[in-house]
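Hey L., structure's done. Input below.
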Amino acid sequence: MTRPTTLAVINQKGGVGKTTTVINLAASLSIMGQNNLVIDLDPQGNATTGFGKSNSDEEKNIYNLLIKKINIEETIQKTEIKNLDLIGSHVNLSGLEVETANDSNRAFVLKEILSAEKNGLLDKYDNIFIDCPPSLSLLTIMALVASDELLVPLQTEFFALEGITQLVKTIDRIKENLNPSLTLRGILLTMFDKRNKLSSQVDKEARNYFKEKVYETVIQRNVRLSEAPSHGLPCVIYDKNCVGSKSYFKFAEEFMKNSNIESAAWVLEKKRV
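Output:
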């Protein structure tokens, strides 16, 4: 059995569709037959509640795992979606940086936990998605050190490319000093509004700068994507026929194609449709 690919979904800006991408990409891939684990490393816990789970669970959470109070098997929760599991967040994560200030090895804690388990419990997963906080904090560095690849959601709005320049510099420093095998899987353009000339301009500039690293699929701005988390569901479950869900299903297909993987069950399902 091949080891899972660990992907950090990252952007130091908030409100770019990062958590929405984690939730709906993981759900889409699971619907298509892949096995996925989502790790919510953001103290806000939006990915956790977006799957209908509590981000105030005092036992089963990523904070207790990182401080080694519990093991990973005790931390993993089943979601309502087949093939999709979750390690939920907790507000205590926000204090981890201060609590571990004297630990010189703290950037490697998550990597060591995942690496120790990759020959056993975690081998059943195709992907492990880490939802990073919208900042370049210790938690983000932990995710970058633990990951094989990065997925960067980029909103098609003003100043978007300026923000990503800083992120690229941080990634380069991590590669140089902490994780030389880290690679950029791709950049996903989000919040695209075809009525807005600025969206098209950012789309063009991003493709000129990052070339083939920008996915062909763009995620269109859609109110259903904003509504779904309040129901504790990914949008691809909440309203699978809306524009936002169709965008994420299309992106999931492109994501799998780039991995040279396509579920036989999903191929048959598409042919029936």
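Confidence is low (pLDDT under 50) at residues 261-273. Strands lie at 5-9, 36-40, 77-78, 84-87, 127-131, 149-155, 183-192, 214-220.

-- N.
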